[in-house]
Write a structure and sequence with these properties.
single chain; disordered N terminus; Copper Amine Oxidase, Chain A, domain 1; Aminopeptidase; 27% strand; 5-stranded antiparallel β-sheet; elongated; 2 domains
C-alpha cells in the first residue's frame, strides 16, 4: 500500500478516534480538532498522530507522556489514551496543545528544495549496460554510462539556469568511476537548513535478454524499507524513547515525496516520448543508490540499450533532449508543489 493510501486511512481510523465519550477530565479528539481548527494525520501502525495547523505540527503517541512540536521541542504531558476504543486527551494535555496551536509568535517554517543531485549511473571501468548495434551500416557500441552522462549534463545546465539559488550537483562530470555507496553520500553530506529538502535523481538505461523490450520506468524506494534517517545522535538523548517513531514518520514523509516526484517525471516522459516507446510506469524497489539516499530519491530508466530501435534513438541528441526536458519538467513541477504547499502540509 502506498503512503498516500495509508494516510487516506485517516477516515477509517477516525471513526474510532472521534467517537470518544464525554469524560469531564478528558477532551475527545473530535473536540480538540474543532477547537484548534487543526487536522489530523494518523499512523495506525504506530498509534501516533500529528495535529497540523498552518505550519505548526504537534506529534503525539498513545500512552507516551510527551508531545513533539515541529520536530524539535518536547513537552512533557499526561499521555493520550484510549477509552472504549476512542482517543482521549487528558484536559491538561489538551490545554498544552491548544496553547501551542494557537500561538502566533512561532516563526513560520520555510519549506524549500535547496539542492538537487543528479547521478549519472556507472562510469569509468563500469560501463553499465553495453551493446554493439549496427546503426546506419556501422557497428556502434551503445553504453549506458555514456548516454546517462550526456543526459545528466543537459539536465544540469537546464536546472542551474532555472534555479540559480539552489545547489545543483552532478555526482560525476566525466567518464570516471564512483562507487555506488559514494553517490548518495555526496547528497547526504550537502549542508542545508533543517527545513530544506534535497532531491536525488539517479539516471540509468535499461537492458533485457529480450531485444524487443523497450520503454522507460521510474523507481522509488519500497515504502516498508527502513533507513536510519533519525537517530539518537541527531536529535538528542531526551528523544531516545521515540526515535523509532520519529524515524518512521520521516520515512513516510520521504516515501510520499518520492512517489510524487516519480509520478511527475513519469507523466512528463509519457507526454514527451510515450508515442514512440512504452511507459513501464512507476515502480518500487530497493536499488542501493535510493536505499542509501536520506531524502526523496528516484531512479529513472530512460530506455533499453538492448533494443536496436531504442538504442538508436538514445544515441540521437534531439531525442535525448526530449527526455531531459521531460525530467526537468517533472522535477520543476515537484519543486513548485513542494514549496507552495509548504512541504505538502497544506
Amino acid at each position: 500500500m502506498s503512503l498516500l493510501k495509508k494516510y487516506c486511512l485517516l477516515g477509517a481510523a477516525l471513526w474510532i478516534a472521534c467517537a470518544a465519550p464525554a469524560f469531564s477530565e478528558y477532551t475527545a479528539l473530535s473536540t480538540l480538532l474543532a477547537e484548534t481548527a487543526s487536522k489530523l494525520e494518523w499512523n495506525p501502525l504506530l498509534e501516533s498522530g500529528v495535529l497540523v495547523k498552518d505550519t505548526t505540527q504537534v506529534v503525539f503517541t498513545v500512552n507516551v507522556p510527551w508531545v513533539i512540536v515541529n520536530g524539535s521541542r518536547r513537552i512533557n504531558v499526561d499521555a493520550v489514551r484510549r477509552q472504549h476504543g476512542a482517543l482521549v486527551f487528558p484536559e491538561s494535555t489538551a490545554k498544552e496543545i491548544r496553547a501551542v496551536l494557537e500561538q502566533t509568535d512561532i516563526p513560520p517554517k520555510v519549506f524549500r528544495v535547496a539542492a538537487i543531485v543528479i547521478d549519472p549511473g556507472h562510469g569509468g571501468k563500469d560501463s553499465g549496460a553495453s551493446y554493439v548495434h549496427t546503426i546506419n551500416g556501422k557497428s556502434i557500441r551503445v553504453s549506458e554510462k555514456d548516454i546517462v552522462l550526456n543526459l545528466a549534463k543537459k539536465l544540469h545546465v537546464t536546472l542551474k539556469a532555472r534555479y540559480p539559488d539552489k545547489v545543483i550537483l552532478l555526482t560525476r562530470e566525466n567518464d570516471t568511476y564512483i562507487a555506488l555507496e559514494d553517490r548518495p553520500y555526496i547528497a547526504n553530506t550537502i549542508p542545508v537548513k533543517p527545513d530544506d529538502a534535497i532531491v536525488y535523481i539517479s539516471l540509468h538505461a535499461n537492458a533485457s535478454m529480450s531485444s524487443a523490450a523497450k520503454g522507460f520506468e521510474v523507481w522509488y524506494l519500497t515504502p516498508n524499507y527502513r533507513r536510519d534517517l533519525v537517530t539518537t545522535a541527531s536529535v538528542g538523548k531526551e528523544y531516545s524513547e521515540i526515535v523509532t517513531i520519529m524515524n518512521d514518520m520521516k520515512e513516510e514523509e520521504f516515501t510520499r515525496e518520492s512517489v510524487l516526484l516519480a509520478g511527475e517525471i513519469a507523466s512528463q516522459l509519457e507526454s514527451a516520448i510515450g508515442a514512440v516507446t512504452e511507459n513501464r510506469k512507476i515502480k518500487e524497489g530497493e536499488w542501493l543508490v535510493v536505499r542509501k539516499a536520506k531524502m526523496p530519491a528516484v531512479l529513472v530508466e530512460v530506455g533499453f540499450v538492448s533494443n536496436l530501435e531504442e538504442a538508436t534513438r538514445l544515441m540521437d541528441d534531439a531525442y535525448l533532449q526530449k527526455i531531459e526536458k521531460a525530467i526537468y519538467n517533472g522535477v520543476s513541477h515537484f519543486i513548485e508543489q513542494f514549496e507552495q504547499s509548504k512541504g505538502f502540509t497544506e
